[in-house]
């Protein structure tokens, strides 16, 4: 099945699909430095918690590799001490590109741990550098396989749940929020991966997805992914979730996560909490699908998850409006950003994420399996999952 690719690498070259231009223009841009990776993440040319971590790790690995390859080794490769100082500097710089998505922080912690253990083992500067490069590439590469494992765990669990309540385990209609597919990861996706898996197993009825204002990851990106994979789907506006649940049989809501606290409280794209409240009201299972690297045991509950607030102006704009009869110099459909408010509004509230409390979540699916809350408990015990 054809899927879109958010990051592609060949012969040391890293390219990302510019997600700001999707769905109408597919353009890959090269990332040639850690600083360019930081800007691409901050500006949301690439987004989605796992994809952010993959790009940061690959750009970091490429930076170390280019130092090793240069005829005149840069100063930071002269000793383990100078390498260590530079690595910590670069990783700390990358760490605040997007504050809510914890996968980036987890990747950085892993790279720092490799630095520490290779240095403690008394390795040469070249070998420490080689270990860092391998780990950076591994962080990006391992994402695809774990996504497939999550999709299978979650998809089979949901089909079984449906059979348990008298259904056939087939033709499951699943609502998702935002974009959690191959564009948001190194491939296949998390919640959208679960939907893709159900489709592949001929167990999917329809995929429903919200537009996901104000950034429209749903209508721009999830729509494009589902169309590319030829998965039967229906787009709804964010305001239509309640109506959808009242008038259509929806078997589950499946969403991704940017950070899952120790008790299971989950930060995800703004609007996820609304969908969870409505799902609880309609007794629809609400499933979070995310890799273990999204679980942050250092964060006790949702109240301590840092929530990124984006620029106020972003909530006033619709990106990607099209003038179908006007083509740009390259013959492509012209895109515009249209302002949908009067300028100079007094107040604009624009948090990028919200927190869904654990008691509204039916299951958390990771590559290790499916965690559910114990009977009568309002929180998850995720210590066995991580
Ligand atoms: O602001 P974004 O587009 O990076 O937000 C993305 C989400 O909220 C996703 O649901 C989450 O990162 C999981 S992606 C597999």
From TrEMBL:
Record keyword Cytoplasm present: yes
Keyword Amino-acid biosynthesis: yes
Catalytic activity annotation: 5-(methylsulfanyl)-alpha-D-ribose 1-phosphate = 5-(methylsulfanyl)-D-ribulose 1-phosphate
InterPro entries xref list: IF-2B-related, IF-M1Pi, IF_2B-like_C, Initiation_fac_2B_a/b/d, M1Pi_N, NagB/RpiA_transferase-like
Coiled-coil boundaries: none
Residues the UniProt record annotates as site (Transition state stabilizer): 178
UniProt keyword annotations, A-Z: Amino-acid biosynthesis, Cytoplasm, Isomerase, Methionine biosynthesis, Nucleus
GO biological process: L-methionine salvage from methylthioadenosine
Domain of life: Eukaryota
Record: active site: 258
One cellular component term from this protein's GO annotations in UniProt: cytoplasm
Cellular compartments annotated: Cytoplasm; Nucleus
Annotated family: Belongs to the eIF-2B alpha/beta/delta subunits family. MtnA subfamily.
NCBIfam families in UniProt: eIF-2B_rel, PRK05720.1, salvage_mtnA
Function: Catalyzes the interconversion of methylthioribose-1-phosphate (MTR-1-P) into methylthioribulose-1-phosphate (MTRu-1-P).
Protein name, UniProt field: Methylthioribose-1-phosphate isomerase
Organism ancestry: Eukaryota, Fungi, Dikarya, Basidiomycota, Agaricomycotina
